[in-house]
Write a structure and sequence with these properties.
Blueprint (H helix, E strand, L loop, with lengths): L12 E3 L4 H9 L4 E3 L14 H19 L9 E10 L2 E2 L6 H11 L3 E12 L2 E13 L4 H9 L20 E5 L2 H5 L3 H10 L10
Parallel strand pairs: 1-2, 1-3
Antiparallel strand pairs: 3-4, 3-5, 5-6, 6-7
Helix pairs in contact: 3-4
Length: 206
Amino acid sequence: MRVPPPSDSAPLLILASASPRRTELLRQIGVPHRVLASAIDERRHAGESAEACVRRLARDKALHVQGLLSGVAATLPVLGADTEVVLDDELLGKAADRDSALSMLARLSGRWHWVISAVALATSGGVSCLLSRSEVQFRALQAAECAAYWDSGEPRDKAGAYAIQGRGALFIEQLRGSYSGVMGLPLFETAQLLTQAGVRLWGTDG
């Protein structure tokens, strides 16, 4: 499959995600890359723990895209990631519509929840995966501000119907864990995998 041309310099890896937030975070640590989004079934399996589900999805995304590559692109590592908001052992996922988003925000209001992010790197030598767990506490939310937040457009493609890097930060009272992990790509774990695979960090042209 033809991989879209890079937007900056020669890529060091393929990102198996169309998320602009993950692209932004990779650029933050100086890793030029190309994007080729995966297309897998992201439903949770019966009896599967939240952590096992997130790990599996990150690995499956990386492996799916790796299988699509050919030519020079096939020699590049493939980075897959999955992030889920977990409340009462339920994966909240992305809001399907306004009512769904407002329901999620009402459930998160005034409570702690987990954000679990897994990152997987597929290379010719196999696939490795690391997990990040963060705890996030929301302050008590008012129905009117939740409605205004939905109208801003920000929650529409976000797990749990909020974005920590955007206006959703106004809802967060405490965070225990990884800010980048809550955004969608835990940079500590990502850097570990990339370093182990020989992928250069701190690039000046990424």
